[in-house]
């Protein structure tokens, strides 16, 4: 299982708040584009899934 961005829910019109929430800095964002998860760094803590105000981070099987 891994977290993934649901692009239909992410408006990507703001600085993603999850960048600061991720404990291992696995989320980056190019200005106001969609946030990107570095799967080599992600430890699957699911913090971003719980924290995203838009519910745009989901757990994929
Ligand atoms: S699951 Fe945890 S480690 Fe992975 S991107 Fe989300 S907050 Fe970061």
Fraction in beta strands:
15-25%
> Could you name the CATH class?
Alpha Beta
Number of strands: 4
The overall pLDDT, averaged over residues, is 95
What would you report as the Rg, rounded to the nearest angstrom? Answer: 10 Å
Give the overall shape, derived from the CA principal axes.
Answer: globular
Output the strand order for the largest sheet: 1-4
Q: Can you characterise this structure?
A:
With 61 residues, the protein is of the alpha+beta class. Helix content is 15%, strand content 20%. The protein has helices at residues 18-21, 47-51; strands spanning 2-5, 27-28, 36-37, 57-60. The strands form 2 sheets. A two-stranded antiparallel sheet has the order 1-4. A hairpin with a 7-residue loop joins β2 and β3 (36-37). The N and C termini lie close together (5 Å). The model has no long low-confidence stretch (mean pLDDT 95). The structure holds iron/sulfur cluster. Iron/sulfur cluster binds at residues 3, 21-22, 24, 26-27, 37, 42-48. Residues 3, 21-22, 24, 26-27, 37, 42-48 line the site of iron/sulfur cluster (SF4).
How is this structure best summarized?
The protein is an alpha+beta fold and 61 residues long. It is built from two helices and four strands. It has a single domain, classed as Alpha-Beta Plaits (2-Layer Sandwich).
What attributes characterize this protein structure?
single chain; 61 residues; alpha+beta; Alpha-Beta Plaits; two-stranded antiparallel sheet; 4 strands; binds iron/sulfur cluster
């Amino acid at each position: 299982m891994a977290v993934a961005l649901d692009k239909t829910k992410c408006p990507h019109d703001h600085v993603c708040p999850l960048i600061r929430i991720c404990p291992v800095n696995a989320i980056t964002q190019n200005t106001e584009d969609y946030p990107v998860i570095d799967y080599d760094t992600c430890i699957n803590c699911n913090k971003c899934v719980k924290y995203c105000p838009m519910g745009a981070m989901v757990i994929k099987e």
